[in-house]
Please model this.
Amino acid sequence: MQSRDTHLHIGLVNVQMAESRVCFIDGEAGILLYRGYSINDLARYSTYEEVAYLLLYDRLPTTQELKDFNSQLASQRGLPAELLRTVEQFPKRANVMDNLRTAVSLLGSYYAGPAGQSLEKNLESGISLTAKFPTVVAALHRMRNNLKPVKPEASLPHAGNFLYMLHGKRPDEVATRAMDMDFILHAEHGFNASTVAARVTISTLSDIYSAVTSAIGALKGPLHGGAAGEAFKTLKQIGSVGDVESYARKALSQDGKISGFGHRVYKITDPRAVHLREVSKQLAEKTGNLRYFAIAQRLEEVAIPLLKEKRVYPNVDFYSGIVYDNLGIPEDLFDSIFAVGRSAGWVAHTLEQLQDNKLIRPLEKYTGRTESAYVPANKRK
Ligand SMILES: CC(C)(COP(=O)(O)OP(=O)(O)OC[C@H]1O[C@@H](n2cnc3c(N)ncnc32)[C@H](O)[C@@H]1OP(=O)(O)O)[C@@H](O)C(=O)NCCC(=O)NCCS
Model:
């Protein structure tokens, strides 16, 4: 009989579930690497397409490889007309994440094929899925607002095309770059809950669409995705720079949490927040909509000293709502924007899981009753 580690690890806290080459995080030092490359360099110099290539192939592409990969993604953005007709019937008032989860699952009905496919076929599906994610979210947004979906434009990059499909007009360079950087910063983050959900599903040798559908379900929860919306709501609720201090002191004196602050892993400012702070400032200055940026900055100034002892600092979601607001993205879409960015990371992890697969099947510590005598219903008290 196999020897068993009988320790209980509630929430799998501090459990290393598998070896991985995708992402390195040092939460004490604020270091985040995708495949060994610093998030700071990727955010400044890369594109989402290049980052997706890096995550999927475990190396940066050559110029020609990147050109080919860009074309491959651009050529696969379209959705079957039949699928769009079905999506049009989805409840318009539903949470966008519910409709996104269902739409990605539906994509699987068109493209997944039988379970247990080769790694090559799964890579192909993963690229197609990454390419289609923005199209799905943009179509969901337009249809719930009684607008016709906009067909993808192959000449635009991944992020620029997303904004184009969302708003029906070509975005300028600043907006495109901001969206691109946001996607890069959300592309990957180790064994977070949604990624683990994807890995559990693919470990049964299911298919990549099922794995990503599981991931979207996990991302929907307020303990995972959803914080960008909450953080932005807080800024709106505060309303003015002059009210920040009293808000923060009151919230913290009542043991409340400030949304967009704190992280299970980072015990210092989340490195992604630093870039989003810069981008949200640029966008706010461009649009002249500086109110929420100014409130956020003041909230940082006030809350950091108050939370220093607990090592609670701004996280990735603190500034992302301001970025989205300045890009004309409504609050109901915030979590699905996270999903668009994260799609490449989910795919990279499902492929890595398949390369050295072991069915993920932990044990429970059973605390229920044992060996009870069955009593027929008419004799039960
Ligand atoms: C992200 C989060 C769930 C991490 O939680 P965690 O690692 O389990 O840490 P805890 O919630 O146990 O927090 C540890 C301490 O810091 C405090 N703290 C954590 N986040 C805080 C916040 N945003 N504002 C104020 N205090 C906070 C807790 O109250 C707790 O204090 P205590 O020890 O006096 O009880 C938590 O920081 C949080 O709820 N943040 C707000 C939501 C958010 O922005 N989520 C997005 C994360 S990317």
About this structure: The chain has two domains: 23-224+335-355, 227-326.
